[in-house]
Amino acid sequence: MAERLRDSFGPEVIEWIASGLERAVPQFDRETFVTDCGAGFDDLELMERGRRIADVMADHLPGDPHVAVPMVAASLDPVDPELRGMAPFRYLPHVLFVGAHGLPAFEESMAAQYELTKRFTAEFSVRPFLVAHRDATLARLHEWAADPDPHVRRLVSEGTRPRLPWAPRLREFVADPTPVLVLLELLKDDESDYVRRSVANNLNDISKDHPDLAVEVAGRWWADGDAQRRNLVRHGLRTLVKRGDPAALAVLGHARTDHVEVVATFVEPEAVRIGGSVRAGITLVDVRGPGSGPDERTAVDFVVHFVKANGSTSARVFKGGVRDVAGGAEATFTRTVSLAQLSTRRHYPGLHRVEAQVNGRRVPVGEFELLAD
After folding, report:
1. Which residues are CB-contacts of 37 (< 8 A; sequence separation ≥ 6)?
2. Which of 98, 119, 281, 339 could bridge 102 with an S-S bond, Cβ 3.0-4.6 Å?
3. Neighbouring residues of 84: CB distance < 8 A, sequence distance ≥ 6
4. Distances (CA, A) of 252 to 25, 32, 218, 359
5. DSSP label of 77
6. Where in the chain is the domain with CATH 2.60.40.10?
7. Entry pTM
8. Residue segments in the chain with a per-residue pLDDT below the cut of 50
């Protein structure tokens, strides 16, 4: 069984945080702090563990955030670029403390987040400041968009994501993402792929609520963009592409035409047990004759309508591929889909329908019977 995230965030994290606070806080009661943090700790999930420690930090630090937040910042270890995987999560409680208790101390909290995001990420803590101190926080993020540290620049795009996972939505930016787009414009050509990928994720968030606006921005970025920016646009439009949005597909050069026709499809095997896999395929032909025009840029995704526990179905899109199809030529696209039971997707017996999405146009491919294991 795969290790759960919380298993990498155990009592040793409490001890490490206590050591840092002991250095920074006069007369810090380490023993009581560790005891208070550990009460019921084993029953908590990762984010709950982080919040528990943050709340206990508040109990053991001065009540004035102008004093307490600098103490938290002073307790941090030096930046360690070798920290990988779950190791940086040791700073999660510090981030949650600043987000929950630092709002009255804007300058001290922004300084703390500037340091924290170099070690972990302040994307969770900066969001309350975007709500409570919107203009001041946006102004600071505008400055940070030019910071030499890519972790700080990434905070600008990641912290303003309207639908950031594991965090409350920024409802004002869900309604109107214009202030966010101002920041993304500054970062769309960032030298760091780490930052550009965050910009793409933010654009993808925006596309879920404002598809037309996201397509308009993506079209401008694509028109004069280099390969790196176009990769950003592809990633930023991924949700719209999966939905078969014609405007998003057109930005990427996948115009819906009648030139490409289906000549063959398959789904194999016709019956498979839970835990196995199924392979689907489609062969297309550009019916124009050779040399009749530019190659047809063709994007194919596969759509599997999974049976749910109540007998209804839910569609999930899987990438098939992108290919330039010349006039008169054929192209075959295939995809193998695992039917193993996952924590993120449970499978149930029944007839599963498969479609292909060809430049946004849905066409039937076949079906398979999923049997109980």
Report:
1. 14, 17, 52, 53, 56
2. 98
3. none
4. 55, 58, 9, 10
5. P
6. 260-371
7. 0.86
8. 1-2
